[in-house]
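Notebook B, p. 112. Complex prediction, attempt 2.
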Amino acid sequence: MRILLEILLLFKRKMLETIRQPVWVFMGLITPLLYISLFSPLLRNLSSPPLSTGAVLDAFVPGVLTLLAFIGGTGAGYGVISELQTGVIERLRVSPASRFSLLMGTILKDIAAFLVPSALVIIIARLFGFKVHAGGLLVMLVLLSLLTAIVSAWSGSLGLILKQAGSMAALVAGLELPLTLLSGVLLPISLGPKWLQAIAHVNPLYYAVEASRVLAAGTIGSPEVFKAFAVIIPLAVITLFWAARVYCKAVS
Amino acid sequence: MNAIEIKDLRKSFRGKRNQKTVEAVKGISLAVKPGEIFGFLGPNGAGKTTSLRMLTTLLPIDEGEAKIGEYDVKRNPKEVRKHIGYVGQLGGTDMEATGRENMMLSGRLYGMTNKTVQKQSEFLMDLLDLCDIIDRLAKTYSGGQRRRLEIAMGILHKPDVLFLDEPTTGLDLQNRANLWDHIRKLKSAGMTVFLTTHYLEEADELCDRLCIMDKGIIVAEGTPQTLKREISGDVVSIKPKNDKENIEYMFGGDENVLDIRKEGGKINLYVRDGAIALPKLFNVLKAKGVELESVSLSQPSLDDVFLKQTGKSLRDTGKETSI
């Protein structure tokens, strides 16, 4: 299939570009570890008696992974903007390559760039007592990869529409904060008042976080997991469809 | 069959809110023969790039027809893309990749196999002088090197027509002349080249035929020689010391003077024969006591053609200030 070859070629291009930026690679790997080493100790003393490190990680690691999945996708737009400015996108647009492959190349790179640090987080957390349930984690990574794809497609399309790093940064920051705060990524939403829990229900990220917690504990067939896939899969389909249209139309 | 055929091509851009609609291209028609180097000459904002972007499927066509070879740009953009090469003003080199990786990606996206890309790359590296730098990251290239790589990528898949948008903008004189040589080589290999430029010398040196474009319309078309021949004779440019002085009237009666045009503080006199006209002019000026700051005699250039057609000098509107 031609389109698969195109996607593979464009994915390889983005991967090479990523690997050649050592600062990015380093920061991408270090950020989740910072969360775990600097934030998770705060959680220990939330209950009395204090929780064990392992128990804290059981609750916190799924959140960190969801955060990684979400943030991993947000960068796509900046890449698009710099490629607009260097003319790379224009050059690819006059080639017979399908617009959908352009989009998918970046999305797959973002997924790969999410999975590698995630694996590292899981391995390190395990050393400190995080209980690994392989099946649950695998389903979780599939779910979160879909989340990265959604965010990446959004970000890339917004980059094409806004064309400016400044407006892009403002929009991403403006969306990122409420979405993460209302998802229970860092602390479970169930700790909050009823109204907060109610708002959280319109946030797709919330379902991903809830499902991740359950999946990390090893339960695959729970209602949280079904709900999350029921939200994320249609959302991914709609987003990809819309983003492909933006990529087709985009000028310059 | 023509390599490119355009009939009454039009494009407008809708302004934001209260701004008026901008008609960037107001109905242009032309035909380019296979194997020609054809140029669009005009100042910035003349509509050259907009026209080019319509021909290369990057911008939808508002009205009119455009064909590349046998393929209609509006109806069959996919086929058109397979048969053209395009080097935009921005270039499009992937800076984080080496020259070779850039070429490989381009070629593979056009459906070539690894092997054919390699073979064709070797050939182009020779042709465009890229052998020494091909395995370095593109971000380390100079402007001229990058341009040559971009042209190599533009012709890797052996397109029927190569579109170049301001190919030498930003290059120094030496690199520009060097690139002209390379573009001529492409022509001798049988390729049709369509380029835009706001450099007079470039159009003059490089193009077999050209269109002069201004404000969205074609104001003149022909070979550089015929265009210049339309302005017969020589051009005498004089600049009086006191440029408020009105001295055009002094030459109105002279049958040697065909046309008089003011350009800034200068007065251009289009004369039949410079050798006869010049002494006469000096006599007139001396008799009237006009002192001159500068005087020059030259053959007509494409700028004179531009001036005659549009009433303004390309040098004033373009980026370039002197030859």
